[in-house]
Amino acid sequence: MNPDNNQLPRPTDKLTAFLREYFSEAPLLIEPLLGDASTRMYFRIRRDGETFIAAVYAEPFDVTTFAYLDVTQLFQTAGIPVPEVLAVDGRRGIVLQQDVGDWRLQDVLLAQPEVARQVDYDLALHLIVEIQKTTALAQARNSIAWRQAFDDEKLFWEMTYFFRNYVERYHQWRLPPEQVAVVLGELFALTYRLARVPRVVCHRDYHARNLMHHAGKLWVIDHQDARLGPATYDLASLLGDPYAALEEEFQAALKERFWQLHIAAFGTKYYASRRQFDHEYQLMLVQRLLKAIGTYAYQFVVRNNPVYLSYIPIALRTAARALEGIADLPAVAHLVAAAIECEPQPETRVVALSGAGPPTGS
């Protein structure tokens, strides 16, 4: 999150009223921050040398069932570093929390030496395992992270989200009905397998923009969508992260390191063999990347936000490499290969948006 000096939007009206009640009459400075792909708005509050972050939601919420508060409490109880919630106003849709700075892992990667990058990613892998260890606690607390899951419905919805927003809206490809049926059939087969593996608590959006450098450690943010899912979910999200674009060799080393950490923590509870783990990881990587591509496309075609377009080619290439090791998704592999051909040059994207160049069956 970075300062944005544009004129303050109208949500500051309810924020100002909330801050007046919380801080009494102390002088405050409110700075709007650039947020994420959600509808939340963020502000940095400065007061007497202290800083805080206020998240302003589009709608009111019930504090007793609010997912962000639920998961924050779960993770804090388990010792996972998440920003402390200082005050909540459900009627106004506001959460005031600890400020963990502006330095995302994505930003730090640009300048840090290799040894520092290795340390950061090793910490990130440890945090995945710590999040997975909260599974029993989430069940005991009846947390939202236990009651929500990457089941058949959720996983396949994400694949139709990709198809609708990237294939149909972004490229405006109109494929023959029989080809659509084949592609969606393969995507359903992919998600069917992933929905039937043993589940652990997952962060759900674990990448270099949601890990913050602050006070000498990594902090986890944007964790409100935590839910049960495959143990490879957050790993695929971190290693295949288009924001970081990690080299294949580094990804392989990190995957090996995670395997060691996972086995040390859980033994063979989730994987009977390394081969089973590797195969699930490839499937998960494809699913996770296609969902991300769908989000990037949605941001552009529906919300007129081009910020994420540059990450689409990176995600496509990583998905294509993962598909090389999956023999029974040929139509999906063909679609991804055709999409890669349309992405490199800006003028190609213009042609694609006009409806030209859809992939055809082979």
Automatic annotation (TrEMBL):
**Occurrences of domain Aminoglycoside phosphotransferase (ranges):** 30-262
Source organism's superkingdom? Bacteria
Record SUPFAM superfamilies: Protein kinase-like (PK-like)
Q: Which residues form a coiled coil?
A: none
Molecular functions per Gene Ontology = transferase activity
What is the protein's species of origin?
Chloracidobacterium thermophilum
User: Gene3D superfamilies in the record, alphabetically?
Assistant: 3.90.1200.10, Phosphorylase Kinase, domain 1 (3.30.200.20)
Q: What is this protein called?
A: Aminoglycoside phosphotransferase
Recite the UniProt keywords alphabetically.
Answer: Transferase
